[in-house]
Amino acid sequence: MKPYVRGKNIFLREVAVDDADFIVELRTNPAMSKHISATSADVEMQKNYISEYACSQTDFYFVICDWDWRRLGTVRIYDVRGDSFCWGSWILSRNLPIASAAIESALLIYDFGFFALHYLKSHFDVRKANERVVEFHKRFGALIVAEDELNYFFQYDSVVYMNARNKYRRYLP
Ligand SMILES: CC(C)(COP(=O)(O)OP(=O)(O)OC[C@H]1O[C@@H](n2cnc3c(N)ncnc32)[C@H](O)[C@@H]1OP(=O)(O)O)[C@@H](O)C(=O)NCCC(=O)NCCS
């Protein structure tokens, strides 16, 4: 069965080659791409990227959808290191039909990483200039453990997540 994570107003489904145009549109939109790594506008390249991803044993690339099966964005697990997973490629379209999609998608990726895959920790980096997202992670209790000129490097423990999850459980089914 394909990886599938069921949420309240949204769900995560595994990316497919047919999502390449959606992803390119999302990632090359100037409003959304300011703080993420650059993506080619070439849809064929994106298709190849998705095909290669499918061979990975540890990565999970999800499309965030609502229950009308509309594609709202993406989120991804990658760069697994021991008992810690990295998550990113977190993007949501503007003018979302679901106001809580950001918080719901973060909860679903943590539930998946911690409860389904049984990692104990998570790590991720956020551009310092991406202040809104930096604040988002701090509210969840993530800690900045290092920084360079451009990025903050966060670490997040599953035990801390359990408290956040309790606080935000109204966003879960
Ligand atoms: C990353 C991204 C998906 C986050 O989504 P977002 O909508 O910006 O997230 P927000 O922090 O604004 O949260 C959305 C809403 O939930 C609310 N919210 C967020 N965290 C919350 C919390 N812990 N408790 C209560 N409400 C919360 C916010 O206040 C906001 O509500 P508002 O729209 O009424 O202001 C989005 O900014 C995006 O696509 N950015 C471009 C790509 C990018 O930079 N990705 C991250 C790379 S590290």
Gross geometry: globular
Q: Please tell me the total number of domains.
A: 1
- For the largest beta sheet, what order do the strands appear in spatially? 1-2-3-4-5-6-8-7
Low-confidence stretches: none
User: Would you tell me the overall average pLDDT?
Assistant: 95
CATH topology: Aminopeptidase
In short:
The chain is of the alpha+beta class and 173 residues long. It has 5 helices and 8 strands; from the N terminus they run ββααβββαβαββα. α1 crosses α2 (43-53).
Explain this structure to me?
There is one protein chain. The chain has 173 residues and is α+β, with helices and mostly antiparallel strands. It is built from 5 helices and 8 strands, in the order E-E-H-H-E-E-E-H-E-H-E-E-H. It has helices spanning 20-27, 43-53, 101-116, 131-139, 158-167, and strands at residues 4-6, 10-14, 60-66, 71-81, 84-92, 121-127, 143-147, 151-157. The chain has an 8-stranded mixed sheet with strand order 1-2-3-4-5-6-8-7, with helices on both faces. Helix 1 packs across helix 2 (43-53). The chain is globular, with a radius of gyration of 15 Å. It starts with a strand and ends in a 6-residue tail after the last helix. The mean pLDDT is 95. Coenzyme A binds at residues 32, 35-36, 88, 90-92, 102-103, 126, 130, 132-133, 136, 139. Residues 32, 35-36, 88, 90-92, 102-103, 126, 130, 132-133, 136, 139 line the site of coenzyme A.
